[in-house]
Design brief:
23 helices, single chain, 10-stranded mixed beta sheet, alpha/beta, flat
Length: 716
C-alpha cells in the first residue's frame, strides 16, 4: 500500500458499492482475498482505498469511482479528521476562485513544496477576504505548512472537482456530506425555512442590505439573503464558525458583499457591540439554562425585561432587537412554549405594547429540527421614535400535516412553495400597513386523489391545509397569560375544511369502501408449503436478470420519491438539492421495484406511469427487472414475504437494515410468474383502497366531531 493512501471504513465501502454495511461484513467473511484492515480499531477497521477499489472491480461490483466520491473518501479518511480537512478544502477553493492563476502555479510543484507555497498564498487571500488575523477575533485562521502537507492530495482532487462542477457547488457537496454523516453534531436550518425567514425580513419588498445572524450555525440563514451589502455572523463553535465563514465567502460575490464572521458566546461576549443592521435572522439554541442569566442581570439589552433563567429564547429576541436600526426587522425561529410560558409573560406583554412584536407564525411539524414539534416564527420590528397607531399582531397558523410528523421523513412531506405563499400572502399586506383586523383564511391541498384507490391514486398522504391568519389588536391579547400561540386565537380549521366538504368526503369514503369490498381476496385454499428451487436478488443481478441501484444522490429540480412515499403509497413529495457537483439522479421507470432499506418492514412498490421520472430518494433501493426474465409484480410480491425480509435483514441496537441482495425468489417460468404477479397486483390495489378508506374515514370522523362541537353540523 502507498504510504499516503487514503483509508476508508466499511461505511465508505458500502457507499462506493451502493450496498448496505451488512453486505460489506458478508464480503469480509466469505472472501479470503478481501483487503485486510490497515488501521482503525477492531470494531471499526479501516482499509486502503486503492486496494478496496481494485477488489470491487475484480468482483464486478464497481465500474469506476466517481471523482466526487474519491474526494469525499479522501476527506472522510483524512488523518486530522474530516472537519480540519474540510476547512483546508474551503480555503483552497477560495484561492481557486479568487486567484485562479496563482493556484495553477502552486499546483505545478511537488506536494511537499506545494504545502509551503500554499500556506503563504492562503494567508494572503484569507486576509483580503476576512481582514487581519490578529486583534479582530477572525473566525478563519491561516493553516501552516505542516497542517497542509497531509491535505495536498485532497486539495488537488477538490480543485479538479471544482473545475467540472463549480467552486461553490463542490464545497456545498462536501459540507452537506459532513452534515449528513453527523446529524446530531449540528443544528440545521432547512433551506426552505431559511428562504422563508429571509423573505419575511424584506423591508417593503426590498431585501435588507446589512444582516446579522448571532447564532450562525452552518450559515444557512445568511446564505438565503439575496443581494446583501454586508453580512455579520457569530458562532460559538470555532470549527463551525470557520466552515461557515468559508461557505458564505464562496456563496457571496466578494466585490459586492462585506463579510465578517466572529467566534464566541454571543450573549456573554457580543462580537459586534454597537452594530445596528437592517435585519437579524436567527435560529437560536432552544431551552438553554446556562445562557448567562447570573452574569448578565444588568445588561442594557434587556430593554423589555430581564429574562428568566428558563427563557433563553427571550434573551435572544432582545439581543436581536438591540442590533436593529429603527424600523429594522428580526425573524427568529422559536419553540412554541416561548409564546405561552408564564415566566415570559411580562416580556411578551411589553413587546406587544411597544409594537416590537409584529407576527407569530405557527409552522407545521417537520419544518425544522426537532422535526416532531410545530415551531414558531417571531417577526419583530425595532420601534422608531415617531407616533404609533394602536399596535396589532399578525397571527398565522399553518395547518399540521394530515398525518403526525412522528418520524424523520416528516421533513420531506412539506410543500414549501405552498407554505411560503400562505405565510407571505398574510405577512406582506400587514407589514405594508394595509392589514385590517379580522379573519382571513386560505386552504391549499396538494396531490388530490380520486375515489378509485388505484395504484396511481397516491395524493392523500401529502394533503395539508394552510390554516388561517388574523390581525389581532394587542388589547385583546393583554390578559393574565399573554398567550400568543396562534391556535388559541384563530378558528380551528375543520378536518374536512368545513361542513360542505364532509359531504364530498363521505361520498369518496363510500366509493373507496365499495372498491375495497370488490377487491377483497377470495377464500384461500390451504395447501402444503411449496418446495421451489430458490435464487437471490444478488444472483439475479450478477446474471443480468435485474439491475440494482441505490438512491439518495443527484442534483436538479425534479420530484423525489422518498422513503415516506414508498411506505405510504404516496406521490413523490421530495425535492432534489440545487447545490453540489452535478450528478445525475437515479430516475425510476415503469416496472421498477423499489424497497426501503431501513426499518425492517416488508414493503415493495412497483413504479407505475404516474410515478415514473421521479428521482430515487434516500434509504431506497431500486430493482429494475428484465421483463423477458422477471415479472415486476411477481418480484415485488415475493420480496414482501415476512420470512424473506427477516432472513435478509441485519439488526442493530437502533435500526434494522435490509440487504436487498439477500432477498430470495423461486425459480419459476415467466408465465407462472405472471400468474402470481396478477394476484399480487390485485392485493396491492386492495391495500391501496383500504389505506384511502382509512384516511377518508379519519377525516370524516374528525370533521363530524368539529362540526358538532362548533355548531356547523346539527345532530339528526
Amino acid at each position: 500500500m502507498p504510504e499516503n493512501a487514503t483509508e476508508v471504513t466499511a461505511a465508505g465501502i458500502a457507499r462506493l458499492a451502493g450496498v448496505g454495511r451488512a453486505a460489506v461484513s458478508n464480503w469480509r467473511r466469505r472472501h479470503a482475498d478481501f483487503p485486510k484492515p490497515v488501521g482503525g480499531t477492531e470494531t471499526s477497521p479501516s482499509f486502503a482505498l486503492p486496494e478496496v477499489e481494485q477488489w470491487l472491480r475484480d468482483q464486478g461490483k464497481l465500474a469506476e469511482v466517481p471523482l466526487r466520491e474519491r474526494v469525499w473518501q479522501q476527506l472522510a479518511g483524512h488523518p486530522a479528521g474530516a472537519v480540519p480537512a474540510l476547512f483546508h478544502v474551503g480555503c483552497a477553493l477560495l484561492l481557486v476562485r479568487e486567484r485562479p492563476s496563482a493556484w495553477r502555479e502552486i499546483t505545478g510543484v511537488s506536494d511537499e513544496r506545494m504545502a509551503g507555497v500554499l500556506s503563504l498564498a492562503l494567508n494572503e487571500v484569507l486576509t483580503d477576504r476576512f481582514g487581519p488575523a490578529t486583534g479582530t477575533g477572525r473566525a478563519v485562521h491561516s493553516p501552516d505548512r505542516s497542517d497542509l502537507l497531509s491535505s495536498v492530495p485532497l486539495l488537488r482532487g477538490a480543485a479538479e472537482l471544482a473545475a467540472a462542477a463549480g467552486v461553490r457547488e463542490t464545497f456545498e457537496f462536501l459540507l452537506g456530506r459532513q452534515l449528513d454523516a453527523n446529524p446530531r453534531q449540528y443544528t440545521l436550518t432547512p433551506p426552505g425555512l431559511a428562504e422563508l425567514m429571509a423573505a419575511l425580513a424584506d423591508t417593503g419588498g426590498r431585501p435588507p442590505r446589512t444582516v446579522l445572524d448571532p447564532a450562525a450555525g452552518t450559515g444557512a440563514l445568511l446564505g438565503a439573503v439575496s443581494q446583501p451589502g454586508a453580512l455579520y455572523a457569530q458562532e460559538n463553535d470555532p470549527d463551525l464558525a470557520a466552515l461557515t465563514a468559508l461557505r458564505l465567502a464562496l456563496h457571496a460575490d466578494s466585490a459586492d458583499c462585506a463579510l465578517t464572521v466572529r467566534t464566541g458566546d454571543t450573549l456573554r461576549a457580543d462580537a459586534f457591540p454597537g452594530l445596528t443592521v437592517d435585519a437579524v435572522l436567527c435560529h437560536p439554541p432552544f431551552n438553554e439554562r446556562n445562557w448567562g442569566h447570573d452574569e448578565l442581570a444588568y445588561d442594557p439589552r434587556w430593554e423589555y425585561g430581564f429574562p428568566a433563567r428558563t427563557e433563553s429564547e427571550l434573551a435572544w429576541v432582545q439581543h436581536a432587537l438591540a442590533h436593529l436600526r429603527e424600523g429594522g426587522t428580526a425573524v427568529l425561529l422559536m419553540p412554541p412554549a416561548a409564546a405561552s410560558r408564564r415566566s415570559g409573560r411580562r416580556i411578551r406583554a411589553d413587546l406587544l405594547r411597544r409594537g416590537a412584536l409584529r407576527a407569530v407564525i405557527a409552522l407545521p411539524a417537520g419544518a425544522a429540527p426537532p422535526y416532531g414539534i410545530p415551531l414558531h416564527l417571531w417577526v419583530l420590528r425595532k420601534p422608531d421614535a415617531g407616533p404609533h397607531p394602536s399596535p396589532e399582531l399578525l397571527l398565522v397558523d399553518t395547518a399540521e400535516p394530515a398525518e403526525p410528523a412522528s418520524s424523520q421523513s416528516g421533513r420531506d412531506r412539506l410543500d414549501w412553495p405552498a407554505l411560503h405563499a400562505a405565510v407571505l400572502d398574510a405577512w406582506r399586506p400587514f407589514s405594508g400597513g394595509s392589514g385590517e383586523s379580522g379573519e382571513s383564511g386560505e386552504s391549499g391541498e396538494a396531490g388530490e386523489s380520486d375515489e378509485t384507490g388505484e395504484r396511481g391514486d397516491r395524493g392523500e398522504n401529502n394533503r395539508f391545509r394552510l390554516g388561517t391568519s388574523r390581525v389581532v389588536p394587542v388589547i385583546e391579547l393583554l390578559d393574565d397569560d399573554i398567550d400568543l400561540a396562534p391556535a388559541r386565537h384563530l378558528p380551528a380549521a375543520a378536518a374536512a375544511d368545513g361542513p360542505a366538504e364532509l359531504i364530498d368526503v363521505r361520498e369518496r369514503l363510500t366509493k373507496s369502501l365499495g372498491l375495497a369490498g370488490r377487491l377483497t381476496p377470495p377464500p384461500v385454499e390451504v395447501s402444503a408449503p411449496a418446495r421451489w428451487p430458490l435464487t437471490t436478488v444478488g444472483e439475479l443481478a450478477r446474471a443480468g436478470a435485474l439491475q440494482l441501484r441505490t438512491g439518495g444522490s443527484g442534483t436538479g429540480t425534479g420530484p423525489v420519491l422518498t422513503e415516506h412515499d414508498v411506505l405510504g403509497s404516496a406521490a413523490p413529495s421530495g425535492g432534489l438539492p440545487a447545490d453540489g457537483p452535478h450528478e445525475e439522479p437515479v430516475l425510476v421507470e415503469p416496472g421498477d421495484v423499489v424497497v426501503p432499506v431501513l426499518g425492517g418492514g416488508s414493503v415493495a412498490r412497483v413504479i407505475d406511469d404516474a410515478t415514473a421520472g421521479a428521482a430515487l430518494g434516500r434509504n431506497l433501493q431500486l430493482l429494475r427487472p428484465d421483463p423477458a426474465a422477471l415479472d415486476p409484480w411477481f418480484l415485488a410480491g415475493f420480496l414482501r414475504g415476512t420470512a424473506n425480509n427477516r432472513q435478509a435483514s441485519s439488526y442493530a441496537s437502533t435500526a434494522t437494515r435490509l440487504d436487498a441482495r439477500r432477498l430470495q425468489l423461486p425459480r419459476l417460468p415467466l408465465a407462472e410468474q405472471q400468474r402470481y404477479g396478477e394476484r399480487f397486483r390485485t392485493l396491492a390495489a386492495f391495500e391501496d383502497a383500504l389505506r384511502l378508506a382509512g384516511q377518508l374515514g379519519g377525516r370524516l370522523v374528525q370533521g363530524m366531531y368539529d362540526g358538532l362541537t362548533d355548531g356547523t353540523v346539527t345532530p339528526k
